[in-house]
Design the sequence.
């Protein structure tokens, strides 16, 4: 039901907008917002309308309790995005809500009034995949939104490029194995994880070289 989804969407948006300001509205106020958003158009009859309204209030009650107990750090609401593709094709969309999870991690929330998807189905969803791509672009743009963020972002990128080059050159020189581990670590977590992991693998490789054991004995002596 498109109209019901729109009503719920508007109510949640207004409630979270107040929550971002530090105002924890009581459920009675949220229910009043719901009544203000309510439109009778689109329902087959009064019975169906009453059932949807009852279901909407129950959903909002559960949502309100969860948000008050653990308020999210909302970074964006109704965030529009564009994904340029080949042949001048541009996909446009809008993310209902983007929450910050700390560091550079974000959580994308898409308001749905139907049954929740299983994890396996969610991973195959085209819409969620597009959201993930859009979120990556959003983080990069925000990182370079000002001079301080730009310097920080540039420092991180240069450090990552230098480390990846060092891993490639040093790994080839020592004929190291498992080089893909620190490389993946750099891309998924960052330099702070990839560098220590590479140094550990490098130390193991050095210990396995001919003469390494003898050199260690001489050093101890």
Sequence:
């Amino acid at each position: 039901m498109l109209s019901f989804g729109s009503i719920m969407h508007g109510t949640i948006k207004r409630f979270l907008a107040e929550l971002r300001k530090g105002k924890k509205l009581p459920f009675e106020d949220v229910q009043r917002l719901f009544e203000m958003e309510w439109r009778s158009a689109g329902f087959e009859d009064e019975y169906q309308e009453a059932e949807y309204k009852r279901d909407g209030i129950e959903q909002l009650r559960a949502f309100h309790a969860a948000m008050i107990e653990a308020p999210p750090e909302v970074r964006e609401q109704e965030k529009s995005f564009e994904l340029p593709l080949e042949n001048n094709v541009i996909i446009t969309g809008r993310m209902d809500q983007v929450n910050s999870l700390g560091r550079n991690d974000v959580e994308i929330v898409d308001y749905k009034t139907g049954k929740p998807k299983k994890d396996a189905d969610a991973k195959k969803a085209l819409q969620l995949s597009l959201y993930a791509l859009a979120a990556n672009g959003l983080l990069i743009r925000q990182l370079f939104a000002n001079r301080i963020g730009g310097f920080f972002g540039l420092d991180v990128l240069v450090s990552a490029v230098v480390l990846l080059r060092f891993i490639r050159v040093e790994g080839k020189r020592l004929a190291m194995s498992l080089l893909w581990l620190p490389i993946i670590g750099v891309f998924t977590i960052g330099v702070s994880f990839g560098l220590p992991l590479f140094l550990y693998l490098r130390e193991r490789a050095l210990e396995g070289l001919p003469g390494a054991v003898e050199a260690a004995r001489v050093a101890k002596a």
